[in-house]
Amino acid sequence: MEYRQLGRSGFKVPVLSLGTGTFGGKGDMFKKWGTTDVAEASRMIDISLEHGLNLFDTADVYSSGVSEEILGEALKGRRHKALISTKATFTMGEGPNDVGSSRYHIINACEDSLRRLGTDHIDIYFMHGFDALTPVEETLSALDNLIESGKVRYIGCSNFSGWHVMKSLATSEKFGLNRYVVYQGYYSLIGREYEWELMPLAADQELGLMVWSPLGWGRLTGKIRRGEAIKDGRIAQGGASGGPPVDENFLFDVVDVLDKISKETGRTISQIALNWLSRRPTISNIVVGARNEEQLIQNLGAIGWSLSPEHMAELDAVSARQPIYPYWHQMSFDGRNPKLVKWM
Q1: Of 121, 144, 317, 331, which residue is most buried, by most CB within 10 angstroms?
Q2: pLDDT band for position 343 (50/70/90)?
Q3: How far is CA 159 from CA 28, 164, 183, 212, 254, in A?
Q4: What is the arithmetic mean of pLDDT over 68-77?
Q5: Known catalytic residues?
Q6: Of residues 128, 115, 23, 43, the one with CA closest to residue 86
Q7: Do 152 and 85 touch, CB atoms closer than 8 A?
Q8: In this structure, are residues 288 and 299 in contact, taking their beta carbons and an 8 Å threshold?
Q9: Residue 55's beta-bridge partner residues?
Q10: DSSP H or E segment with residue 172
């Protein structure tokens, strides 16, 4: 397993982590993702640790806390071997303060996550979304308090826009507060918008990226091909609901190239898509999901080898999309924006 620096920190994480959105299956949305119980979770953690994957990603809203509970139970007796990342911000109750990034909600949410996980600390704690109703300094001050108390080791943000991230980093610098060292965001061969603004920001500010949904919300698993009906898996069960929209022609163009490279390399479509992603700038970690052991082992096979420069170029070309304004305009001024042009 390859380990990488997590942004501007001394902390190293494996290039792959296991996402636990499939643990629990509570509620209509998460039932479509998976219904992994404690026994199955324990076995997947066994396999992960055997391969050097020791980072497990969850969130309080995953199956209304059940994902955290299952992860905590499955890690009993070996918490010291594992790293845990979890998240807060979204609604976890009926009260007016059971949502958001206020000091009140963050501290309560953290304590609840610690209890469900059965641990005394969280290695990486994310704000799951941006809360425009709470002053940024209040959020960061509360997170700083959690770090100083030893309950949280590192902090990150997820699904923020570029200016949300930059405002947060500037606020940390202004008040001498612990800063976000990692951004968790969507990035895949069929979703490269991260490159337009967040990637240059991450490189400039030394912010690591932890990728969610690296297989395009289940569309790059090899189960979707041009002219073929989707027979099984998460997409067939309606699990793409709420995910990023994708033009079908564009999707099939990308899958056609993945299929071609798969035949040439003997690697699966998902392994090729993950390997391409692992070689992109700013990537610290890729969160892979798995409904069963077979899927997990296949995803673990995405590392330890490299696509050829020619295959990388083919994938770069077929997945490229015309950026929206002002990014297309900045690309025409490439002499002063070389990184933007190079990455896209």
Answers
A1: 144
A2: low
A3: 22, 9, 8, 10, 25
A4: 98
A5: 62
A6: 128
A7: no
A8: yes
A9: 83
A10: helix 162-175
Cis peptide before 326 (omega within 30 of 0): yes
179, 147 Cβ separation under 8 angstroms: no
User: Whose structure tokens read 């109703």?
Assistant: 133
Strands 55-57, 16-19: pairing is parallel
Decide: 22 and 33 in contact? Cβ < 8 Å: yes
User: Is 286 strand, coil or helix?
Assistant: strand
Give the Cα separation of 236 and 244 in Å (integer).
Answer: 16
> What DSSP element (H or E) covers 17?
strand 16-19
Q: What is the pLDDT of residues 211-249, one digit of tens each?
A: 999 999 999 999 888 877 666 555 655 555 667 789 999
- What are the Cα distances from residue 161, in Å, to 53, 129, 277, 288? 29, 9, 21, 23
Pairwise CA distance, residues 162 & 194, whole Å: 10
pLDDT of residue 259: 97
Residue with tokens 């612990």: 178
Residues 235 and 48: their CA atoms lie apart, in Å, by 25
* Banded pLDDT at 336 (limits 50, 70, 90): confident
Q: What is the DSSP string of 49-107?
A: HHTT--EEE--TTGGGGHHHHHHHHHTTT-GGG-EEEEEE-S--SSSTTSSSS-HHHHH
Report all structural domains of the chain as residue ranges with CATH numbers, in order of start.
3-343 (3.20.20.100)
**Largest CA-CA distance found in the chain, in angstroms, rounded:** 56
* Nearest Cα residue to 184 out of 287, 53, 84: 287
The per-residue pLDDT for range 11-69, each reduced to its tens digit, is 999 999 999 999 999 988 898 888 999 999 999 999 999 999 999 999 999 999 999 99
* Sign of the Cα pseudo-torsion (26, 158, 90, 85, in order): positive
The token pair at 202 is 């991450």
Q: Is 303 exposed, middle or buried (0-12, 13-18, 19+ CB in 10 A)?
A: buried
Q: How far is CA 202 from the centre of its chain?
A: 15
